[in-house]
Amino acid sequence: MNIQNKRDREKFARLRQSLLRLAEEIPRLVPSLLSDKPVIRGSVYELKRKCGKPGCKCNKGPLHGRMVLSASEGGRTQLQVIPSGLLVDIRIKVRRYQALRRSRARAGEIHKKMLHIMDQIEALRREDMSSEKGSGTAKRIDPKKRSKKAPKKAEGKGKQS
Predict the structure, then answer these.
(1) Would you place residue 161 in the very low, low, confident or very high pLDDT band (cuts 50, 70, 90)?
(2) In contact, 35 and 148? CB cutoff 8 Å
(3) How many Cβ atoms are within 10 Å of 120's Cβ, its own excluded?
(4) Are 3 and 123 within 8 A, CB to CB?
(5) Is the pTM of this model over 0.70?
(6) Cα-based distances in Å from 66 to 11, 44, 58
């Protein structure tokens, strides 16, 4: 390692460990992202309500319950009643969807953190040409002052007429 400053070496080691920890997390996210099994967007829950009939037991006792799928479409929540025979299958597909969304969100967080750490590592590793031993004659080039003209061809080279 060529980082000379002890504090910078320690910081570099911590950054490298952080980057490795984040990289180790990625393989756990990949299966839910690459799966070809179907998913259903939304949440499954039991909706309990009164039916409105005057003599029904739901007026004084337990409410009527139905399993529903809740999903937002166009900014509005839509509810769909789930037939009892499909409940298990729909719950599995909804769980897959939720796992997919969690994995996708975590992958985005990891990516952002990794880029930030990589920028810090690059900054620690970067050096100017003037800091090289024996290169005291190196000249900085200001990108704003670069000439936009093409370099002139050397005499004697190129086409002869």
Answers:
(1) very low
(2) no
(3) 16
(4) no
(5) no
(6) 57, 10, 13
